[in-house]
Amino acid sequence: MLARSTGSRLFGVVDTLSAGYRIVNRRPWLVLGPVALDLFLWFGPRVSVAPLIGPLLARPDLARGLGPNDAQAFEA
């Protein structure tokens, strides 16, 4: 069981979410960073490791240790 220190209160999930929404309602510009990151990830350049891993998979001595599931994970 968690020990509570005297004078402190543990917040529940609803209390924590309510406090977060209150802060965002007071300072809506705090949302701009995560929204900008989401837009960049959605509409930005597509990045893939396939061009980097492709030459390694073409070498039989390196690809020998990979199973069929591992090789499929690196395909584009």
Care to describe what's here?
The protein is mostly helical. It has two domains: 13-43, no CATH class; 46-76, no CATH class. The protein has five helices and no strands. It has helices at 13-26, 32-43, 50-58, 60-63, 68-73. The protein is elongated. The model has no long low-confidence stretch (mean pLDDT 80).
Task: Label this structure with key terms.
76 residues; mainly alpha; 2 domains; 5 helices; 59% helix
Q: How many distinct domains?
A: 2
Total helices: the number is 5
> Unreliable segments (pLDDT under 50, ≥5 consecutive)?
none
Mean pLDDT: 80
The CA-CA distance between the termini, in Å, is: 48 Å
Overall shape: it is elongated
Largest sheet: none
How many β-strands, per DSSP? 0
Provide the succession of SSEs.
Answer: HHHHH
Query: Helix- and strand-based class?
Result: mainly alpha
Helical percent range?
A: 55-70%
Radius of gyration: 24 Å
Strand-residue fraction?
under 5%
